[in-house]
Amino acid sequence: MSFLGVSQNEVDMSLQRVITDERDLQVAPVFAQRIDEDVIPKGRLPENPLPADVAAGIVHSRLLLDGRAALNLATFCTTSAEPELERIYADTAAINLMNREEYPASSDIEQECINALADLWHEDDGRFIGCSTSGSSEAAMLAGLAMLRRWRERGGTGTPNMVFGGHVHVCWPKFCNFWDVEARTVPLEEGRTTLDPALAAQAVDENTIGVVAVLGSTQDGRYDPVADIAAALDAVAADRGVDVPLHVDAASGGFVAPFLDVDFAWDFALPRVVSINASGHKFGLVYPGSGWCLWRDPEYLPESLVFDCNVLGGHHPTFTLNFSRPASGVIAQYYQFLRNGMAGYQLIAQRCQEVARQVAKGVEAVGPFEVVGDGEDLPVVAFRLRDPEAAGFTVYHLSEALKGDGWHVPAYSLPPNLEHVHVLRVVCRQGFTLDLAAKFLESLAKHAERLGGHPFPLPRPTALTFTD
């Protein structure tokens, strides 16, 4: 018998191959070798080196259990990039941003980004000062330190305090804990998950180093009423003579509000706002490890906190918690500024918000859910069960069930005073398309119906830790 003119014998021979070289066995070198604790010991370095391809294969095989970034609806962080940006990351990872003598172009790019952000955030006097950071948590520490030192240098005595809402990112309670600052937390309440201006004003006194407003809560995506908070603090200054600066934590909103909410006052256009932080690695569209902190005037960044560094040659001021770090995040941010421009960032933000609106509508259509964050500020949707007892399951059960379809959707309780409210949250960032959103809603409806039909009460699984 022959097939297309090829004899059966020839076919059989083509399917057989005589192995003449040991290297022929190394098609999959990771699995062709004896890999055990003698080669890869646990908790210590191996005695001998491995071939590069074997080491890389082991690393990649270990990572197979990680989730798929496209289906991770928990994170605010950027998880994908164009090939051109990937190349920039690879080309610039070895550049030490702190070595400004050797890499002056990278330093210039950093300043270009700071200038662009100052313009975006309406600092029109030209007196701004700023720095790049590893993210908003470091930026928050720097902003907090600047407020604390300025309060002390202006004669502050006693125990310093900081005022913020119960919904702030954990970096702010951390700051207060690390530097012995009293955290005056304004509680949330049913129907209000943002900082109340009147309550914030009541909480301040002569020992308040600053008030923090949040432009986009990680809990439900809502913006604090920054202009109203600023006005309340202006009234405190006029009536009580207590001049309290306002910092805006715009970790996510700093790259959303300027493009979606142009009439929403929140930035340096408000004289009460003295500093702003933002994360480049969220809606700034670069990979994790990029943040920014800007002050409207050097007056708000005391010189006593700025160090002169000459160990790498030359004299350069530095005010960061880190020292050596790659320039890739800064240069990637510059690429995205060039790549997208105002119109591009606006289009991306609009598409993210469009998806969030569709998700919010779809969630409510499923039946047992109530939307508590509808995506009208940040493109984030948070929702809870209207009646968990009647539903027969909790948001924690649903979160676990969705993992079966690959979706990572965090379930958590809201901050103090609203601990009884348990929600799921969906972050609609770039790459989460309307098509993917429709698939997610299908999974949500499927698992809600299945769990609701369970004949017995389900044991509550371990609550997932909320992360952003």
UniProtKB/TrEMBL annotation:
Co-factor(s): pyridoxal 5'-phosphate
Domain of life: Bacteria
InterPro entries xref list: Glutamate_decarboxylase, PyrdxlP-dep_de-COase, PyrdxlP-dep_Trfase, PyrdxlP-dep_Trfase_major
E.C. designation(s): 4.1.1.15
Keywords: Decarboxylase, Lyase, Pyridoxal phosphate
GO BP annotation list: L-glutamate catabolic process
Modification N6-(pyridoxal phosphate)lysine, positions: 282
A Pfam family annotated for this UniProt entry: Pyridoxal_deC
Enzyme class: lyase
Gene Ontology cellular component list: cytosol
GO molecular function, one term: glutamate decarboxylase activity
Reactions catalysed according to its record: L-glutamate + H(+) = 4-aminobutanoate + CO2
NCBIfam families named among the record's database cross-references: Glu-decarb-GAD (TIGR01788)
Family: Belongs to the group II decarboxylase family.
UniProt protein name: Glutamate decarboxylase
